[in-house]
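stuck on this one:
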Amino acid sequence: MSRPSPSRLATFSHHASSLLEHLQSDDYPTRLTDMFKDLIDLDDVSIILYPFEDMPLCEYLESPDQGGSLHMDSFVKAPFLLDPFYLASVEGNYGFFRLKDLAPKGFRQSEYYNSWYRLSGLHDECGYIIDLGGGSFVNVSLGRTLNPANFRKAELDLLRDITPMVNTLVQKRWASAPGQQNKLRLQLQTALNSFGDSLLTEREKQVINMILRGHSTRSLSEKLSISMETVKLHRKHAYAKLEVSSQAELFYLFIDSLMSVENYEEGDALATYLNLRTGGQAT
């Protein structure tokens, strides 16, 4: 495995020591970001805290005055549920990852990518998913928007090698961060898992859920061990029942159903949303 040069090791050591001395400072997220920027070429960094069962909180965002704040404000209301880094954390995967290691086949053709990820301008992304214990975690996203080049292997190896210390720096700052105790994230996660329950068969719901996460027809076929034609048939039937004709319409139906129904507790949010949209009364 490639190791950092002495100069980069010295840079990292200097930053880590300084960060440990300023754990409670208001500019800690900026200091942490500066460390990464001194180690490799970066122009986009975000730090998102996911408190236990509560909605995500953006602790740091690069270039917030260039449209990033508006994009992030929308992202943390519901679309984060389909983010590959978030989905990895839900499955208990922590550590350093590159987006391409987490995203399913077909991700760049998904509606999530076209409607949200592409707007971030990221050419390449990697980052850390750091367990804070008790169901809380932090996602530190490192990306390139201005630089069109992908991260080099040596850069990725360096970031991966410093994972233990990055874990410590993040955990010491955010492990005791209080949540809002409203369980909204848990409710939205439940809504995602239940999306389509009221209208679809179990297999149709499974196909729709994976389409929302960015899986292609081929990827679905491989994951579910069924033929591509069978995948297409399930998708066709599900689209007909949901009254959508494309992945784009499916994506916005999902987002609208989650963001439009208030006081969600359990069950299929789509059923309540459709009932309200057609003038019925929520059950």
Summary: The chain has a mean pLDDT of 87.
